[in-house]
Amino acid sequence: MSVTTNLSFSDVSVDRAYPVPPFAAACVDAARDSWGASFDHPFVQALAQGTLQAERFRFYQMQDARYLEAFSDAAALISTRCPDPDDKLWFIDAARMALVVEGELHAGYGEQLGYDADDIAALTLTPNNRAYQDHMISVAQRGSLVEAVAALTPCPWLYIELGQRMEAEMGAIPDDHPYADWLAMYRDPEFNDYMANLLSRLQRFADAADGAARSRAKEAFQTSIRYEWMFWDQAWTQQTWPV
Amino acid sequence: MSVTTNLSFSDVSVDRAYPVPPFAAACVDAARDSWGASFDHPFVQALAQGTLQAERFRFYQMQDARYLEAFSDAAALISTRCPDPDDKLWFIDAARMALVVEGELHAGYGEQLGYDADDIAALTLTPNNRAYQDHMISVAQRGSLVEAVAALTPCPWLYIELGQRMEAEMGAIPDDHPYADWLAMYRDPEFNDYMANLLSRLQRFADAADGAARSRAKEAFQTSIRYEWMFWDQAWTQQTWPV
Amino acid sequence: MSVTTNLSFSDVSVDRAYPVPPFAAACVDAARDSWGASFDHPFVQALAQGTLQAERFRFYQMQDARYLEAFSDAAALISTRCPDPDDKLWFIDAARMALVVEGELHAGYGEQLGYDADDIAALTLTPNNRAYQDHMISVAQRGSLVEAVAALTPCPWLYIELGQRMEAEMGAIPDDHPYADWLAMYRDPEFNDYMANLLSRLQRFADAADGAARSRAKEAFQTSIRYEWMFWDQAWTQQTWPV
Amino acid sequence: MSVTTNLSFSDVSVDRAYPVPPFAAACVDAARDSWGASFDHPFVQALAQGTLQAERFRFYQMQDARYLEAFSDAAALISTRCPDPDDKLWFIDAARMALVVEGELHAGYGEQLGYDADDIAALTLTPNNRAYQDHMISVAQRGSLVEAVAALTPCPWLYIELGQRMEAEMGAIPDDHPYADWLAMYRDPEFNDYMANLLSRLQRFADAADGAARSRAKEAFQTSIRYEWMFWDQAWTQQTWPV
After folding, report:
1. What tens digit of pLDDT does each residue of D138-150 get?
2. What is the ipTM of this complex?
3. Which chains touch B (3 or more CB pairs under 8 A)?
4. Do C144 and A144 touch (CB under 8 A)?
5. Residue D171 contacts by C-beta under 8 Å, 6 or more apart in sequence?
6. CA of A86, closest CA in chain D: separation in Å?
7. pTM (2 decimals)?
C-alpha cells in the first residue's frame, strides 16, 4: 500500500450529489462535532489506508450484520406509521435493502473471513452496538415520524458521505487494497437517489411536526451520529461488557 | 359468457400443490364453516361467471387497495418480531409484495375503472374493511408471533385456494372474460411457494407457543376467515356505515 | 316504572361542566350526526326507562368488560408516546381506571347477572365490539398522538354526556330503577375533571400536529363515535358473526 | 458516621422473603457475575456508608427520574401484551408505581438537591442510562412476553435485594445518615409482595415459551443486570458522551 499519511476526511468539502433540505442541514449543524469525529476515527483511517487488521474488520462485519437487522426493524416500524403508501413502500424497501444488499456483502465477507449465519446469530452484541440498535427501535416505537426517521438517517448518510469523501481524498481505489469491495460499495452513485429520497421525507415529516418534536428529532439524530462513532470504536477496541 | 349455472367452489376438492402442516390444518378445521362460505358468496360467483357489475368490481378494487396497506403494516410488524433474519426478510418481502405487485394490479384497474391514487387515499373505508385491517394490526402488535401470523394467513390462502378451485371447476379462462386478468393472477403457481413458506412459518411459531397461544391463534385465524367473507360482502352490498 | 314516553337525550342542551377546547368542538361538529344517534338508540332509551331486558343488559356488560381491556391497552400505548411525564401518568391512570373502576362495576353486575371472570375471558367478541377495540389499538400503534387520543375520547365523553343528559331530562333516579347504579355512575361529577384533562390534552396534541394529522384525528374520532352507536346496537341485537 | 470499612453486600446471604421460582433462579444463575458486581460498586458502597458526595447523588437521582419514565413505558407495553386482565392490571400498576412513588421521592430530593421537573426534562441522558432505557423498550416491543418481563425484572429485584442486604449487614439506619430516606425505602417489606408477583409472572410466561425464547429472556435479564451496574457507574463517573 502506498497510502501512509493520515487522510483528512473531516476536512474534505464534498459537493453532495443530492439535495440537503433545511431540516437535514439543521440536524447536521446541531451534531457538527460528533459528525466530524466519525471520519477521524482510527478504524476509519486504517480502513482507508488498508492497514486495518483483518481481525478488527471481521469483528466489525459480524457486529454490523446484527446491526442491520435492527435497522430493518426500525424502518419497518416507520413504514407502518406512514399514511402515504409511497412512503410506506419506500421504508419497506429500505428495510429490505438493509437485509438483502448488505446481507449479500456479509455473506461474501463471511466466507472470506470465516464466519457463517450461525456465528452471527450466536454473537454477543457489544454495548455500543446494542445501544445503537435499541435507540433506533425505541424512537421508532415511541417517537413521532420525524424523530423516528431522524434516528435512522445518520447510518446511511455517514457511510455515503464517507465513501464520497474517500473518493475525493484518495482517488481511485488501488487494485490491491484489501478492503476495495467495501470502499467501492459506498461510492456507488445509486446511493445519491436513496439519500435524496430519505432527506426529502425527513423534511416533509419535520414540516408536519411542531418545534418540540423537531427538537427531539435533532437530538435523536445527534444520538445516532454519536453511536456511529461508537460503532467504529466498538470494532476498533473489540469492546466487551464491563461486568 | 357461456357460464350460466352456479359454480361449486366449496365442493371442489383441491390437491394443494404446497404442504399443509398440522397447525394450519387445525386452523382450517376450526374455521371450516366460515372458510367454505367465502367460496359461495354471490360476489365470488358473479366474479367467476363474469357477470359481476363493473361498479361492484370497482368498489372492491378500491377498498382492496387500502386493505393491502394494512396487510403490509401487519407483515412489517411481524417482521420486527422475528428473531431469525430469514423470517424477518420473508415478512418484509410479504409486506413489499402486498404494496408492489398488488399495487401494479390496482394501477392497471385504476386506469380501466377510473380511479387514481388520490381517490384511493380519500376513500371512506367500509366497516368490514376497516375492521379486518385493524384486526391484523391489533394482533400483530399485541399478540404472540403465532397469533400474528395466523391473522395474516387467510388472506393469501383463500385467494390462492379460490384461484385454484376456479381453475379446477372452470378450466381455462375464456378470452372474453371481463375479469380474466384477475382470475389469472390467483392461479399463478408461484403462489404455491409463497404458501409453503407462510404455512411452514406458522407451524414453527405454533411449535414455539403453548396451548393457550395456539388457541388464540386459531381464533385469530377464524376471525380473519370471517372477515374474508365480510370483505366480499362489503363490496357486494357497497357497505356504508349505519350512522 | 313511571317513565313511559321516549326520552329526548339528543335534543337536550347540556351545559357542560368542563371546558371544550376548539379541536374537541371541531371533532364533535364533524361527527354531529353519528354523535346524536347514540342518544336515540333503543338500547339507551330502554336503559333510561328501566325497561331494558336483563338479558340484553347482561350481554352488554359482558362485552363491555372485554372492551375496557382494549381501552386500557390503547391508553397504555398512548402513555408510551407522551414525552411529558405528567401526560404519561395521566394515560396510565386512564388505563388503570378502565381496568379497576369499571372492573369493580362488572364484578358487582357479574354476581347479580350470573357471570364470572372465566365467562368474560371465554366470551366470543361480537363483530362491532372487536372492530371498535381494534380501531383504538391500531390508531394508538400507527397514528400520531392526536389521532390516538381522538380515537379514545368518544368512549368516556359519550358516556359522561349521556349521564348528564339523562340527569337533565329525567331528574333524580327512582329508587326502584333496575339500572340505578349504572345511571348514577355516569352522573358522577368527578368525571368532569377527567373530561377537562382529556380534552385539554387532545387540544395540545392537535396544536402540535399539522392539518393532515388533524384531519385523520377527526376521522378517528368520528369512527369511534360510530362504533359507540354500534356498541349499543351489538348489545341490543345480541349480534353474532354472519359466517 | 461510624461506618468506615467496606461493606460486603455481595457476600451476604439473604433469606428472601418472597419465593424465587426456577426460571428466575436460572436467570440469576446465568447472570451471576454481573449480579454480584452491582453490590460492590463504589457508588453503592459510598451510598451505604453515607460518604457519597451530594453531587453524585444528585446526578444519580436526576438520571434515575428519566429512567423511571422508560420503565413505565416498558411496563405499559407489557401490559398490552398480556391476555389476562389481572396481568394487564398488574403491569399498569407497575408502570404507575414507577411514575408516582418514585416521582414523589424525586420531588422530595429535587427540593433538597436543587432541581425541578424542567431540569429533569432538559437533562442529557448519559450513554448508559439511554442504553438501559432503550433496551427495555426494544425488548418489550419486539420480544415475547417472557423476554420483555425478564428485561424489566432486574431493576426492582436488585434494589430490593440491595435494601435487604444493607439491612442485614448494617442493621438500623443511623438517624444522621444523609441518605436514610433512600435506604429505608428499599427495605420496605411491601416490596416482597411486588417481587412475588413479578417473579411468578416471569415463571408463568417462561412456562408458555419454548427453549429459544427462554434463552433470549435469560440474555435480556443478564443485559439488564449489566446495565444496573453501568447505571451506578454512570452516576459515579458522571458519564458524558465520547463525542
Report:
1. 999 999 999 999 9
2. 0.95
3. A, C, D
4. yes
5. none
6. 25
7. 0.97
